[in-house]
Amino acid sequence: MKIITQAPELKEFTKNINQSIGFVPTMGALHEGHISLIKRAKRENEIVIVSIFLNPTQFLKGEDLDKYPKKDEADKKICELAGVDVLFLPHVNDIYGSDEASILAPKVRGYILEGATRPGHFNGVLTVVMKLLNIVAPTNAYFGKKDAQQLNLITLMVKQFFMSVNIVAVDTVRESDGLALSSRNIYLNKNERKEALKISASLYMAGKMVSKNILDSKEIIKEMRATLEPLEIFYVEILSRDFEKLLHVEIGNTIILVEAKVGTTRLLDNIWL
Ligand code: AMP
What we know:
The chain has helices spanning about 5-15, 30-45, 70-80, 90-95, 115, 120-135, 150-160, 190-210, 215-230, and strands at about 1-5, 20-25, 45-50, 85-90, 140-145, 165-170, 230-240, 255-260, 265-270. The chain is of the alpha/beta class. Strand 2 (about 20-25), helix 2 (about 30-45) and strand 3 form a beta-alpha-beta unit. The protein is globular. The chain starts with a strand and ends with a strand. The mean pLDDT is about 95.
């Protein structure tokens, strides 16, 4: 596995490649969720490039940028074992200058749900993803469905900026008890880890209601909120794949999204129906 830290070096490397490139951007502290993105990229491309970059611009003041888990050596091993060809490990100064233009998330889609409580978060996400896609120039780029709003905004950006990369959505990987894998799960103590299960439980319950043909969004959200008690809920929403509010679940066109706080940790999850 080749390790590259400088953007110009990676640009030069990819420019000279005539094979398909699969790209998996991450912030590190890699887990099985990331590995499933890498494996999918391996299956569908000749060359796989992974980036690990803790992007400061997507963290708001007072968020967990400074304590975000770092596992540099373990991450390198995971990438090597997964058959990654190039690991891109840029420094902040290689990605950002002192006076930066930024990509702005659309006013509506970027400022609802997670964007409502983290205003500006998606501006940072879109800016760094644009930069990384320009450096790597991949054929395919892989993103998790777990971050559904991020995936939606990136897909929109790629379309609206006429970029030629293909965005691939990958299913959420969970622990055996249902908890969606996240680098932030490490913040949970034993009791919080148990409480966190209410999030996936609420989604499974919604899925069960839908399978019994209960499709009314209000009714489902009410039951989900009851299941999530006493967690602090940021939102429970039933949206179309295009992020429009749905009064009724439409099979094949629905995402049910939850974000809640467990202890001091914000956790998000969703199911696609
Ligand atoms: P992060 O390192 O948290 O920025 O995540 C990097 C990529 O991995 C993003 O596209 C995430 O959506 C994706 N990802 C994170 N957790 C999971 C998971 N449990 N299953 C699948 N993909 C995930």
